[in-house]
Structures are given as C-alpha cells and as structure tokens.
Amino acid sequence: MGKICGICTSTKKGIGKTFVQNGTLVENFGLEGDAHGGNWHRQVSLLSKEKIEDFKNRGGNVDNGDFGENLIVEGFDLAKIPIGTKFKINNAILEITQIGKECHSHCAIYHSVGDCIMPREGIFAIVLKGDQISVGDTIDIIGDI
After folding, report:
1. What is the pLDDT along the chain (145 residues), one digit of tens a residue?
2. CA angle 64-61-37, nearest 5°?
3. What contacts 59, CB < 8 A, 6 or more positions away?
C-alpha cells in the first residue's frame, strides 16, 4: 500500500505542473483539466516521492510538478512495477501502460541540473474507472505482480 503525496496539473503542455490538494480522475481521459489528458496511453503520469527526494539530495532544486508528473506516490518503486499492473485510488482504477519515456529535447530541469528522472523513473497509466482523489489517499495494487 502506498500514499498519494501530490497531485499536479497544468493547462498547457511543456510547462511544470501546479500542485493541487484534490483532483478528479476521468475514465478514458486522465486528470480532469490536465493538458496531457486524452484518448491515448499516457493519460496520467506517476513519479515516486522517494525518487524526487533522492534527486533533491543530489542537488536538484525542484518542486512538486516540475517533472510534469500528475501523481506523486510514496511507498512504491514505480519503475519496477510491470506494465499491465492496476492501481486503485478510492474507486478509481489506473492501469500502467508505459515505464519511462524518451526525451526528444531535454527539459528545463535537465538543462539546469544535468539530469531528469522522469525518463527512467516515471510511469504512465490510463484511467479505467474515474473518481475523486486527494492528497493523503491510499493507492493499492490490485492483484498480484
């Protein structure tokens, strides 16, 4: 079992996301109001709180949402969870569709610090069932991994 430590959203692609306390996961779309939502395989991005903290401890000056992550999750090494794994947050269900992503042009974080963890540590999911979510909610893996 893990915990949602941050929910982040933005209305435009290519910019850092803004931290919010609550959000709505919308079936077959993603996080309501987020520019990355839509009918595709990367509706929601997740990043481990522990990996963000490690990055900060190595000198990275980042805030919640700077990596473009929608959900900051504590308690899982997300990059090691297999594609197809399902998570439950309240009544919402997410299915992991991709681990990491290729960076075609390095982001502002990479240019300022020389590294970005999202390409290797971030994971992506689709929303199979929507629901309201809040910082502090638990996140559970459904089934065996």
Report:
1. 999 999 999 998 877 789 999 999 999 999 999 999 999 999 999 999 999 898 888 887 888 888 889 999 999 999 899 999 999 999 999 999 999 876 656 555 555 555 666 767 889 999 999 999 999 999 999 976 5
2. 30
3. 113
Quote the Cα angle for 67-81-22, to 5°: 50
Query: How far apart are the C-alpha atoms of 118 and 123, rounded to whole Å?
Result: 8
CA distance to 1, 29, 107, 117, 126, per residue, from 25 (Å): 19, 8, 26, 24, 10
Residue 86 near residue 141 (C-beta atoms within 8 A): yes
Residue whose pair of structure tokens reads 């969870």 in the numeric block:
81
